[in-house]
Amino acid sequence: MNTVQAIRAFFLPIIATYPVLLYLGTYLSIIFLGNVISFTTLLLAFQGSVSVGPFLGVIALVLFADISGDLAWYWLGRKLPGTRVGEFLYRKLPKHEEIERNVLKRAERWVFLSKFIPASTFTIIFLTGWSEVPFKKFFRTSLAAIFCSVAVLTLFAFALSLGLSSLEPIALFKRFERLFALGIIIFLLFNFFLAKLFRRLIRWLDSG
Length: 208
Description:
The chain is mainly α and 208 residues long. Helix content is 82%, strand content 0%. α4 (52-79) packs antiparallel against α9, α6 (96-105) packs across α7 and α6 crosses α8 (121-130). The longest helix is centred in the last third of the chain and has 32 residues, at 176-207.
Protein backbone atom coordinates (compact mmCIF):
# COMPACT_ATOMS: atom_id res chain seq x y z
CA MET A 1 0.00 0.00 0.00
CA ASN A 2 1.52 3.34 -1.06
CA THR A 3 1.34 6.54 0.96
CA VAL A 4 -1.70 7.99 -0.88
CA GLN A 5 -3.66 4.76 -0.45
CA ALA A 6 -2.73 4.61 3.23
CA ILE A 7 -3.90 8.19 3.78
CA ARG A 8 -7.15 7.51 1.94
CA ALA A 9 -7.73 4.30 3.87
CA PHE A 10 -7.28 6.19 7.14
CA PHE A 11 -9.31 9.33 6.39
CA LEU A 12 -12.17 8.15 4.17
CA PRO A 13 -13.93 6.05 6.88
CA ILE A 14 -13.64 9.00 9.29
CA ILE A 15 -15.05 11.47 6.76
CA ALA A 16 -17.83 9.04 5.85
CA THR A 17 -18.78 8.79 9.53
CA TYR A 18 -18.28 12.48 10.34
CA PRO A 19 -18.78 14.47 7.07
CA VAL A 20 -18.64 17.75 9.00
CA LEU A 21 -14.88 17.18 9.33
CA LEU A 22 -14.51 17.57 5.56
CA TYR A 23 -16.14 21.01 5.70
CA LEU A 24 -14.10 21.98 8.76
CA GLY A 25 -10.87 20.88 7.09
CA THR A 26 -11.75 22.79 3.91
CA TYR A 27 -12.67 25.89 5.93
CA LEU A 28 -9.37 25.90 7.83
CA SER A 29 -7.36 25.12 4.69
CA ILE A 30 -8.86 28.13 2.87
CA ILE A 31 -8.03 30.40 5.82
CA PHE A 32 -4.38 29.32 5.93
CA LEU A 33 -3.67 28.47 2.27
CA GLY A 34 -6.02 30.85 0.47
CA ASN A 35 -7.22 30.84 -3.11
CA VAL A 36 -5.48 27.67 -4.20
CA ILE A 37 -7.79 25.66 -1.90
CA SER A 38 -10.80 27.85 -2.75
CA PHE A 39 -10.32 27.22 -6.46
CA THR A 40 -9.77 23.48 -6.08
CA THR A 41 -12.83 23.18 -3.83
CA LEU A 42 -14.97 25.00 -6.42
CA LEU A 43 -13.60 22.81 -9.22
CA LEU A 44 -14.42 19.64 -7.30
CA ALA A 45 -17.91 20.98 -6.56
CA PHE A 46 -18.53 21.64 -10.27
CA GLN A 47 -17.30 18.18 -11.16
CA GLY A 48 -19.34 16.38 -8.54
CA SER A 49 -22.38 18.49 -7.66
CA VAL A 50 -25.78 17.06 -8.64
CA SER A 51 -28.00 19.98 -7.66
CA VAL A 52 -27.83 23.72 -7.06
CA GLY A 53 -28.22 23.52 -3.30
CA PRO A 54 -24.93 21.81 -2.39
CA PHE A 55 -22.95 23.98 -4.79
CA LEU A 56 -24.34 27.17 -3.28
CA GLY A 57 -23.29 25.75 0.06
CA VAL A 58 -19.73 25.34 -1.24
CA ILE A 59 -19.64 28.97 -2.43
CA ALA A 60 -20.96 30.07 0.97
CA LEU A 61 -18.23 28.01 2.67
CA VAL A 62 -15.52 29.62 0.51
CA LEU A 63 -16.87 33.13 1.18
CA PHE A 64 -17.19 32.50 4.92
CA ALA A 65 -13.65 31.12 5.13
CA ASP A 66 -12.22 34.08 3.20
CA ILE A 67 -14.04 36.58 5.42
CA SER A 68 -12.95 34.72 8.56
CA GLY A 69 -9.33 34.72 7.42
CA ASP A 70 -9.27 38.44 6.69
CA LEU A 71 -10.88 39.24 10.04
CA ALA A 72 -8.43 36.97 11.86
CA TRP A 73 -5.32 38.48 10.22
CA TYR A 74 -6.59 42.05 10.65
CA TRP A 75 -7.30 41.67 14.36
CA LEU A 76 -4.05 39.76 14.84
CA GLY A 77 -2.20 42.74 13.41
CA ARG A 78 -4.32 45.17 15.45
CA LYS A 79 -3.79 43.44 18.81
CA LEU A 80 -0.16 42.23 18.63
CA PRO A 81 1.90 45.48 18.38
CA GLY A 82 4.10 45.81 21.46
CA THR A 83 4.16 42.06 22.12
CA ARG A 84 7.04 39.65 21.51
CA VAL A 85 4.96 37.54 19.14
CA GLY A 86 3.82 40.60 17.22
CA GLU A 87 7.30 42.04 16.85
CA PHE A 88 8.64 38.65 15.75
CA LEU A 89 5.95 38.28 13.07
CA TYR A 90 6.43 41.87 11.94
CA ARG A 91 10.18 41.42 11.44
CA LYS A 92 9.70 38.16 9.55
CA LEU A 93 7.22 39.54 7.02
CA PRO A 94 8.87 40.17 3.64
CA LYS A 95 9.24 43.86 2.70
CA HIS A 96 7.13 44.79 5.73
CA GLU A 97 8.32 48.41 5.90
CA GLU A 98 7.63 49.06 2.22
CA ILE A 99 4.22 47.39 2.35
CA GLU A 100 3.31 49.23 5.55
CA ARG A 101 4.11 52.59 3.92
CA ASN A 102 1.92 51.70 0.93
CA VAL A 103 -0.90 50.51 3.19
CA LEU A 104 -0.83 53.78 5.11
CA LYS A 105 -1.05 55.76 1.84
CA ARG A 106 -3.51 53.58 -0.08
CA ALA A 107 -5.08 51.10 2.32
CA GLU A 108 -8.18 50.33 0.26
CA ARG A 109 -6.20 49.68 -2.92
CA TRP A 110 -3.80 47.27 -1.21
CA VAL A 111 -6.48 45.40 0.73
CA PHE A 112 -8.33 44.83 -2.55
CA LEU A 113 -5.24 43.74 -4.46
CA SER A 114 -4.19 41.35 -1.68
CA LYS A 115 -6.77 38.88 -3.01
CA PHE A 116 -5.12 38.83 -6.43
CA ILE A 117 -1.42 38.89 -5.57
CA PRO A 118 -0.16 35.38 -4.74
CA ALA A 119 0.84 34.71 -1.12
CA SER A 120 0.22 38.31 -0.09
CA THR A 121 -3.08 38.18 1.80
CA PHE A 122 -1.69 37.51 5.28
CA THR A 123 1.11 40.09 4.97
CA ILE A 124 -1.08 42.91 3.65
CA ILE A 125 -4.07 42.28 5.93
CA PHE A 126 -1.86 41.80 9.01
CA LEU A 127 -0.05 45.07 8.28
CA THR A 128 -3.40 46.78 7.67
CA GLY A 129 -4.36 45.94 11.24
CA TRP A 130 -0.86 46.75 12.48
CA SER A 131 -1.09 50.20 10.89
CA GLU A 132 -4.44 50.77 12.65
CA VAL A 133 -6.39 51.32 9.45
CA PRO A 134 -10.01 51.91 10.60
CA PHE A 135 -11.99 48.68 10.74
CA LYS A 136 -14.93 49.96 8.65
CA LYS A 137 -12.59 51.09 5.90
CA PHE A 138 -10.76 47.74 5.92
CA PHE A 139 -13.85 45.54 6.14
CA ARG A 140 -15.76 47.32 3.38
CA THR A 141 -12.85 46.87 0.97
CA SER A 142 -12.17 43.33 2.15
CA LEU A 143 -15.74 42.24 1.40
CA ALA A 144 -15.60 43.76 -2.10
CA ALA A 145 -12.28 42.04 -2.80
CA ILE A 146 -13.51 38.67 -1.52
CA PHE A 147 -16.69 38.70 -3.60
CA CYS A 148 -14.74 39.72 -6.70
CA SER A 149 -12.03 37.09 -6.23
CA VAL A 150 -14.53 34.30 -5.53
CA ALA A 151 -16.48 35.33 -8.64
CA VAL A 152 -13.30 35.10 -10.75
CA LEU A 153 -12.38 31.72 -9.24
CA THR A 154 -15.92 30.39 -9.74
CA LEU A 155 -16.00 31.39 -13.40
CA PHE A 156 -12.56 29.92 -14.01
CA ALA A 157 -13.46 26.68 -12.20
CA PHE A 158 -16.70 26.44 -14.19
CA ALA A 159 -14.89 26.97 -17.52
CA LEU A 160 -12.27 24.38 -16.61
CA SER A 161 -14.96 21.95 -15.43
CA LEU A 162 -16.67 22.16 -18.84
CA GLY A 163 -13.39 21.22 -20.47
CA LEU A 164 -12.83 18.31 -18.12
CA SER A 165 -16.38 16.98 -18.52
CA SER A 166 -15.49 15.52 -21.92
CA LEU A 167 -12.67 13.58 -20.27
CA GLU A 168 -14.81 11.97 -17.57
CA PRO A 169 -14.62 8.47 -19.06
CA ILE A 170 -10.85 8.56 -18.41
CA ALA A 171 -10.22 7.07 -14.97
CA LEU A 172 -7.44 9.57 -14.28
CA PHE A 173 -9.92 12.44 -13.97
CA LYS A 174 -12.44 10.47 -11.95
CA ARG A 175 -10.04 9.98 -9.05
CA PHE A 176 -10.52 12.60 -6.33
CA GLU A 177 -6.86 12.94 -5.42
CA ARG A 178 -5.78 13.22 -9.09
CA LEU A 179 -8.40 15.91 -9.80
CA PHE A 180 -7.39 17.75 -6.65
CA ALA A 181 -3.73 17.75 -7.71
CA LEU A 182 -4.70 18.80 -11.22
CA GLY A 183 -6.71 21.71 -9.87
CA ILE A 184 -3.77 22.94 -7.80
CA ILE A 185 -1.38 22.76 -10.77
CA ILE A 186 -3.77 24.61 -13.08
CA PHE A 187 -4.50 27.24 -10.43
CA LEU A 188 -0.79 27.88 -9.87
CA LEU A 189 -0.33 28.47 -13.60
CA PHE A 190 -3.42 30.72 -13.66
CA ASN A 191 -2.17 32.62 -10.60
CA PHE A 192 1.26 33.10 -12.19
CA PHE A 193 -0.21 34.98 -15.13
CA LEU A 194 -2.70 36.81 -12.90
CA ALA A 195 0.16 37.91 -10.65
CA LYS A 196 2.08 39.37 -13.60
CA LEU A 197 -1.03 41.30 -14.63
CA PHE A 198 -1.56 42.79 -11.17
CA ARG A 199 2.13 43.64 -10.69
CA ARG A 200 1.91 45.71 -13.86
CA LEU A 201 -1.33 47.25 -12.59
CA ILE A 202 0.31 48.21 -9.28
CA ARG A 203 3.28 49.81 -11.05
CA TRP A 204 0.90 51.74 -13.30
CA LEU A 205 -1.22 52.94 -10.37
CA ASP A 206 1.84 53.96 -8.34
CA SER A 207 3.26 55.90 -11.27
CA GLY A 208 -0.02 57.82 -11.68
